[in-house]
User: Fold these one by one.
Assistant:
Number 1:
Amino acid sequence: MAEYLFIVPGYSDEDFSFLPLRNLLVAEGLYDSDKIQSIEYASLDDQVGFRDFGHKLDDVYNQFEREHPGARIDVLAHSTGSLVVRAWLYMRRTRQVITGQDLDLPVDHLFLFAPANFGSDLAKIGRSGLNAVRVTFAKMDKNFTLKGNQDPFETGKRVLDGLEPASPLQWELSTGDLHTQTYFGEHDPTGMSTFPFIFAAGTAHKSLESLIVKELQKDGTDSTVRIAGTSLNTRLFTLRSKAVIEDRSQLSVQVDDELLPGGGRRKFGDIAFGIFGNYDHCGIINENGLLKKPTDPNKAKTWNPKLPTTWEPLGLLKKAKQVSTAEEYLNLAKEFSEITNSYILPKVDIDEEGIFQQFFFNVTDDTGQSVNDFFIQFFVFDNNSQAYDDYLSAQFRDLFGANTSFQFHSVDNSYGVLMLDITRVQQFLNQLGMNHQVRLKVTAKSAYNGVSFPNSEFTIYESTSALGTGAKVSFFYPFTTTLVKVILDRYVEDAILSQGRFAPGS
């Protein structure tokens, strides 16, 4: 069991914010004070990004390993810090695989608080000129000490690009560390596991600023990150179409079942995830701002508070610290689920809203080139009449609510995220008549003359399986992110290229 803890703050934050939490962990006997280290990174520097942070964190860990041979560490990360840690682990494993080094797994327990695993809606605001001025004034404060963050009018452009929802970085990390060479399972080649625990915040912070900035008012968020985007219980679907699709057999939907050739799963079937409804994004690591940092540097030198033992995540955190086997982990994951269920239950009434899921799309053609202009629609299809049911289709789309939005990444439009309020969707699906399907239609346009893509429809839910067993295929999982890789065959018109016969005008 790891004796050392690394604490990784979020965007533009510093380790000083975690002093109350650090002191509580020491007081509760989870770690010795001299075995807790902090990690600060230049999140406000326009020239660096998550891969740079991951690389330097690897250097820090390598130095730690030289001083403590064979020792593993626990990591506690907040918000954007989760992407820093995951980038480090993913890059470390990738480098070891490419160079043929022995694989290792440095992290024992990974505690993620309100993690920005799938970004934040505030990232676009962070790139604004107004924020650049605000941050510049903050940097002029004599208490501002973060290394590498001193340049005026810089807000961390590359960091914010990666932090924006539907970023290519998030796609690379998630298809890598959750669906390729994951270390979040009991079958890692090292024989070890990293045990991840998600402590999500479940309420939005109400403030004067939240009344002005609409992104701070979004349902389904903790004012900063999307709650559904904190979970690591992702699913990965690949939707594949052919250029000629009169025959629906040319359309395929494949799901990554995460099963390994020799048996077992690539990642834990249930990654521990609990939503703590009484906390907002920053409050979950400081009892909703109970302990304010002193602004007076003289007072800061003697400020040494600790969180109260009534801090709700403490009980599960203490249990998580003791986990050493996959069986213990999966049993504790059930207790995390109970926390989430207590958050969800008041929202299950048909007239309520607030149970969300997001779909994270990446659309390419069959040569791997990005498709930057695409549109997503949902339809209900009646297998008996072999036609759309227009009434049910409209009814289904109306269930998503006013908070439904599709957001393209501002740098690469082949990536997009759709967040749905699916509180009433499951009830609709359960009442759907026999032999109905829900189909997802992808309409795409090429930027080049003579190149086109077929309109493709994929079945993402069926009320009765083809085998007649009653088993259901579904894309819908509350408070998760579903990764959807869409691959479209490109069709090129004959006029683009033709065979000649060396004849005039051929």
Number 2:
Amino acid sequence: MIPRYQTILFFVLLLASIVMGTVLWQLRARAHQRLLAGQDSTPTQAPLVAPSEQATLYFASDAENSLQAEILTLPLPQNPSARARAILGKLLDLYAAPNAAHPVPGGAASVTQIFLLPAPVDAAGVPTPNAPAGDQQSGPQLAVVNLTGAFASSHPSGLETETLTLLSICATLRANLPHVAQVRFLVDGQTRPTLAGHADLTRIYLTADAIPTEGNHP
């Protein structure tokens, strides 16, 4: 003879099985209806692609210890900070490429953020690190370039090669964002004494001084 509690347990389990089967059948039916109706969770609109524009990049050459301008066509966003990061990312990608004239590992991922701020200017409107900040909309700007620690630690050491990297970044920013008059470099969001033991990262760089004149080295 089957004990009464086992009989009750059997019917409870049977009832639970029936309920679960009904729920699963309803869920299957709804999923089938959504499939027939063409409803899914995928986006129906393609992501926006930035239009291609010309950008001037100043490439460093270790052999000649100089910067050379080259015009490339790149997809560039309209936001100035994003635009600056895209341009510098391309510059650093080319430095990380095989047989680069200025080989530096890291590529575009080495630039994590770029902030554009009003640059300090003196009474005559000349950018200077110790003067009050200018107008963010029309006045000169300070670009704060945040590099990764991995980029700094893997950068080739030497005053010339480190300086070329910094000046090529400054000149490229100036060529594509004319309002950028000054550049300040951070590493992982912090001030760092040097890039790889030589080039000073505690100072503010003037972009006008970075662009070479014809026949002169930076």
Number 3:
Amino acid sequence: MEKAVCLLSGGLDSATCLALARRDGYQCYALSFDYGQRHKIELEAAARVAAVLGAERHIVAKIGLDAFGGSALTAPIDVPKGRSASEMGAGIPVTYVPARNTIFLSFALAWAEVLESSHIFIGVNALDYSGYPDCRPEFIEAYERMANLATKAAVEGRTRVKIHTPLLQLSKAGIVKLGAELGLNFGLTMSCYDPGPDGAPCGQCDACLLRRKGFDEAGIEDR
């Protein structure tokens, strides 16, 4: 079995991505981040998903992006609520965390090199998403080129890093259907940007609305 580092937030997309990597026979090493996010409860979901899906190991790296702020997820800025699909599709929202996927992929690249792995999985999606620039195919392609210039293993010809983005061109409904086909227990996951003190999803942030849209269009109950 080939080893793969799988970025795992605890949300629907990353859990589906991990389930897919496991189905395809990879020995998965799950990587999550405590980066000062207001929805830190997602890390509990990530731990559940990693355990149930049989990750070889699950690491939570503490990196503290709240030191910089600049996002509604890492600073005292209101999370947008109740936005329409057209509003969510216009511009880059305040929930964008500066350089987050660039940083996350760099940690994944470092761990992959230590594991002597050529494979990194990330559940980015370029269709039903909130306008984040670091979820676009152009970004992933550029990052993969850089990754193969940046590591000792690649320069010495011992490996060539491949960033797998199996959800990139799927709608949220498509991701839900894929997760169902893979037997994913959706109740393990957490997508909300602004959960209540008891961990209940707010139901009105962009992440909650996009998740609801996906399940509704897929005709599948969200547990």
Number 4:
Amino acid sequence: MAASAPGAFEGLRVVDFSHVIAGPLCTKLMADHGADVIKIESLAGDMMRRFPYPIEAPGTTTQFVQYNLGKRSVAMDLRDEEVRELVLELCDSADVAVENFRPGTMARLGLDIGELRRRNPKLVFCSVSTFGAVGPASEISGFGFVAEARSGLMYLNGDEGDKPSAFGTALADMNASLHAFGAIGAALYRRSVSGEGTWIDISSYDALVTMIDHALALHNLTGGERVFGRYGTRHPLIVPNGVTQTADGEYVAYGCAADAQFHALVALMGREEWQTDPAYATGAARVATQAEVYDAVDEWAATIATADELVAILADAGTVGARIDEYTDAATDEHLIARGTLAPVEVRGVGETLLPSAPHPMSGLSVHPGGDAPGLGEHTRAVLTGELGLSGERVDELLARGVLGETKEAA
């Protein structure tokens, strides 16, 4: 991909009312694809600007940078009637708008979604919330962990007897962002055919439930007679498929999705009789004998000197294994860099550093962060004068009245 190539969303204008993760990741992905994302912030700014850990650029933290690369920031007091009218005008020429407040908040701010769409019928408006704007649970507020807990995924995460646990990432928020990104793309295609925009109502709870692997479908399709079981270090239905440990203390993830792979594995283990024993020979049979199978694999793996050696042994036998790395190993992975998933960005106060980009390589198109994350209100003046035609004097008046914000660097 040439650096001069256009992005797939080049020329698309996005008004971003969102904060923290669930909305900002979606709009950040759009910015990676070339969209002009105008981030509307309160005068205090996105709360991510106050999360750990601050970096040298004023009002900026590591988390804020991650989710807001390549955007323009306008700081406004949306309680002010004149400011609200400016926002309405900005949305009049926008292609997409995104928010992730509690349902009803946009209307309370005087920015009713129906009114925005009436003024601009081509607008694709995407709302992201914990339980969505429609349904019996829509009034329940909460962050992503509420959706993770209620969805059943926390319960499924861990081995039998373990406490339910989180996932090492903001799974609900990030998953909802990806669904929002995909739904916006679908809505934009439909608009290209019909000329009409739409309102998208994304629920992080809905999005999590739809990504549960087989457990929910198994329950409903069998009338509750079959149970998936918990999945931490041992898969309950594809046996064996899990995590084991070698003599050096390192961990290896391995899997035998096919009976032939299991037969190859037990040959390595010196248990060739299991290849024909009806209690072990098939995947369906191994569900009932899984404790014995997993214990046997763990006992054998503990005799292998290193994780790398075990991975090589499994590969030679035609089965699958991978050493479990720390996340820091991915931070400079040459493969990710070559694919553009980790891209160099010049960040104020830090210098050039590798940060995640949209993992969507496209031939002939650029997919890359469009630049540093903005300072609070860094683009207030440029957006209002350039996009809405306000005079510099009028911007100065609104700044003096305290209903607009602007960083010192932009002043």
